[in-house]
Amino acid sequence: MLDLALLAHGLRSLELTLRCGQPDCGKRFDIELPQIAWALDDDLLPPVTVTTEAGQPLMTLRRPTGADLRACREDAMTTLLDAAPATVARALLERLCLAGTPAEDDAPLAAQALSEADPLVAFSVHCACPECGTADDHAIDLEGVALHQLALRQAALVDEVHWFASRYGWSEREIFEVPPSRRRLYLQAMGANEEPLT
Question: What residues form DSSP beta bridges with 178?
């Protein structure tokens, strides 16, 4: 989602403002986080072992992909149309299972194990404050950042529609039939190059 949000802005990195955690400093500073920092190669990540509360292994899972989620959604819309969420979760669990046999009530344990094994859930950046030099870990809410970037892009698109409708009288559908690269050229020609429109 974050890649999509940045792509919508034509960005390859993320600019963040952090605050030094030292009580006697607390200064704000900016960092640039390249896309490679959160890009993961799922093939290089190890499978996830799901254990009982007593630590006994239950099953081994591979990590879910977008294709897995789409397939389960399509199943829910066709063969599992009236299925309860727990049934859909069980179907996803069976898709991901590499070893072991998922039981009816294993889905919550599996969800917790997958969440804890995801390096992007508790994502942080280790960097030094340029003011006092103290190095520290800074937690980054990647989901929140992505939602913020998408909200900015949505606002920019509303501005674009307003400009084109006001200048040319085009409908929203006609506006979005023009490729984004050409829309940018039109906006530059009209002098509409303020921050929300670029």
Answer: none
- Rounded to 5°, the CA angle 130-136-141 comes to 105
Non-local CB neighbours of 103 within 8 Å, separated by 6+ positions? 58
In this prediction, residue 4 carries a pLDDT of 52
Element (DSSP H or E) covering residue 189: helix 180-189
Report the candidate in 112, 116, 90, 118 with the shortest Cα–Cα distance to residue 102: 90
DSSP 92-111: HHHHHEEES---TT-HHHHH
Residue that has been written with the tokens 């606002």 in this structure: 155
Q: Is 43 exposed, middle or buried (0-12, 13-18, 19+ CB in 10 A)?
A: exposed
The burial class, CB within 10 Å (0-12 / 13-18 / 19+), for 129 is buried
Q: Which residue has the tokens 């929203």?
A: 172
**Residue 172 near residue 165 (C-beta atoms within 8 A):** yes
- Considering Cα of 59, then 65, then 67, then 69, what sign does the dihedral take? positive
Q: What pLDDT is recorded for position 171?
A: 92
14, with CB counted inside 10 A (0-12, 13-18, 19+), is buried
As a whole-number percent, the residues of the chain with pLDDT over 90 amount to 7
In tens, the pLDDT along 93-135 reads 888 888 878 777 777 778 778 777 776 666 778 889 998 988 8
- How many Å is the Cα radius of gyration of the chain? 23
